[in-house]
Write a structure and sequence with these properties.
The protein is mainly α and 315 residues long. It folds into 2 domains: 52 residues, no CATH class; 230 residues, no CATH class. 77% of the residues lie in helices and 0% in strands. The protein is rod-shaped.
């Protein structure tokens, strides 16, 4: 059954191909079967060469050739609304790429400076020693968290030196230091997430802006069909292609924004995790210092010869 169907389809294909390649005699084409049956001699006078086929491009309107087929030519022909959508998408795409490049460089620099400061934190002889060299290190979130925590530790230790070092006073000092660290960490997280909202807006809004331009362009194409009364492919295709340019621009602007947002979100989470780890280590050191039974000296002042603060020993 399959072999028979295959042969029938092959014969039909050959017949159709032969009928398109070899033109019929003009006598048969005109229905003059008598002239064709009269013999080859009669056919010499009745048969005429088939008219040459005109290329499809020659039948197209002259104004279609003048318009151009490039993507920017299609964009210029899409109307005011479509062109406005394309301008918005182009602007958002430029802003998106600027944010992507700047954010990548910024996060890479913060990651390197944060790792360098954390290494110096553990290599320092004491918190006082690290604080005295704080200006030597470039900006990093962990450096700013350390600055805030150390400043609150100095104030807390000075207060504990003036009052009796009870458990309540020590817990109050620890709470103050913890709140200072949390505030600094929240501020640094906001700085890390700066301009991330722009990527989110581009990722979510650009496809819909492009879709709006496409729908509007298709509406204009159908309106043109209604005016001309022709629904052929030659009449429909230009308007639809002009409208689809808007969708292409929307996707071109949204895809880099989506990819960049996901990558940078993971990077920000990594940096925030490093800040959390540094905060926990700093609190552990401070708590060991505050609950120590040894006599305390002021953190910000030089220790006496008889008593050495734990902060002046190796971390």
């Amino acid at each position: 059954m399959r072999e028979c169907a295959r042969r029938v389809l092959s014969w039909l294909f050959c017949i159709i191909l032969w009928s398109n390649v070899v033109p019929l005699p003009s006598g048969l084409a005109d229905g003059n079967a008598v002239a064709w049956a009269a013999g080859p001699e009669a056919n010499v006078t009745t048969m005429e060469p088939a008219p040459a086929m005109q290329p499809a491009s020659a039948a197209a309107p002259a104004e279609a050739d003048a318009g151009g087929t490039g993507i920017f030519s299609r964009a210029m022909q899409g109307g005011f609304i479509v062109f406005t959508c394309l301008l918005i998408l182009l602007s958002m795409s430029v802003v998106t790429w600027a944010v992507l490049i700047a954010k990548y460089v910024y996060l890479q620099r913060l990651a390197k400076s944060g790792e360098a400061f954390t290494k110096s934190f553990w290599d320092s002889r004491s918190l006082n020693d690290l604080n005295s060299r704080l200006a030597e290190y470039p900006y990093s979130p962990v450096r700013e968290v350390f600055r805030s925590g150390y400043a609150e530790l100095v104030r807390g230790s000075q207060l504990l030196g003036q009052v009796a070092s009870s458990e309540i006073a020590v817990n109050a000092a620890l709470d103050n230091i913890n709140r200072a660290l949390a505030k600094s960490k929240m501020f640094e997280r906001r700085r890390l997430e700066k301009f991330m909202s722009m990527l989110a807006i581009s990722a979510s809004a650009c496809p819909f802006i492009g879709l709006f331009g496409t729908v509007w362009g298709i509406m204009g194409a159908f309106e043109g069909i209604a005016k001309t009364g022709s629904a052929s492919l030659a009449a429909v295709a230009p308007g639809i292609s002009e409208a689809l340019v808007s969708t292409a621009f929307g996707l071109a602007a949204a895809i880099p924004a989506v990819v960049g947002y996901n990558i940078f979100s993971a990077r920000v989470r990594y940096l925030v995790g490093s800040i959390d780890g540094f905060t926990a280590d700093f609190l552990n050191i401070v708590e060991r210092y505050l609950v120590s039974d040894k006599p305390r000296s002021s953190v910000g002042s030089a220790p006496t010869a008889a008593v050495q603060s734990p902060l002046d020993s190796r971390i």
